[in-house]
Amino acid sequence: MKLAAWNVNSLKVRLPHLLRWLASEDAPDVVCLQETKLEDHNFPVAALADAGFRSVFAGQKTYNGVAIIFRNELGEARDTLKGNPFFPDAQQRLLATTIDGIRVISAYFPNGEAVESEKYFYKLAWMKALYEYLDDELCRFPQLALCGDFNIAPEDCDVHDPERWAGGILCSEAERQAFRGLLSLGLADSFRLFPQAEKSFSWWDYRQWSFQKNLGLRIDHILLSDQLVSSAMASGIRRELRGYERPSDHAPVWVEI
DNA sequence: ATGGCTGCTTTGAGCAGA
Fold this sequence. Notes:
By secondary structure, the protein is α+β, with helices and mostly antiparallel strands. The chain has helices spanning 11-22, 45-50, 118-140, 162-165, 173-183, 226-229; strands at 2-7, 30-34, 53-58, 66-71, 78-82, 94-99, 102-108, 144-149, 187-189, 203-204, 216-217, 220-225, 234-237, 253-256. Helix 3 runs parallel beside helix 5. The mean pLDDT is 98. It binds one DNA strand through residues 9-10, 12-13, 35, 37, 61-63, 111-113, 151, 169-170, 203, 205-208, 210, 217, 219, 246, 248-249.
């Protein structure tokens, strides 16, 4: 199964890109989407069904919104859960479902705006509650994948210019520590299970030709539980989608399990 | 030092993103 995560930054705008990817040769079987920015009644269920995919989604207007799409052949989704019971929140940032025995979670971590800002503390609180939630989920679902836009570059090698970003939002020690806290539950960064090119990123700013100059960050991740790590075969980033006309600022990340 | 793009919004300047 090829599992992917992609922050589309508006599914309305990016739907043609998604459909093109799903129809391509190395198309994914399951995709966790973030920043769909669509209310549920506007979710493109029919277009994705035509492409052979089922959908579950938790959306809202303008901001946030997460979804999970998966091939018809994988059967029905079970135990779909919107949000985090440990963190009641109007922002639609978390969605879990079970596909073919695997607990798949689509997560859109808060951006955090700036270190020490109100949104920064919301981000840290959101992650603390996510930790509690995952601790619970892992007991019931030993085969679990946490996929999405974490808005955290875990190490300096995930940053194009570590000195410039040092201590700043997406790279601060408290955020990185919270990321390592998730790993301590028995999760692994699937990207690092395999050799990767240096300067591999999943997000590039729209401004200043950042993508063309490869000035990016690796902030989108798929974390696999120990049971899934043992079946992982390859991982990577679909960089070319960032080069499409009118792209998302994120490229999809993927793992084959 | 600032703003740099993009998508969205009670359509148009202001916000949020990262």
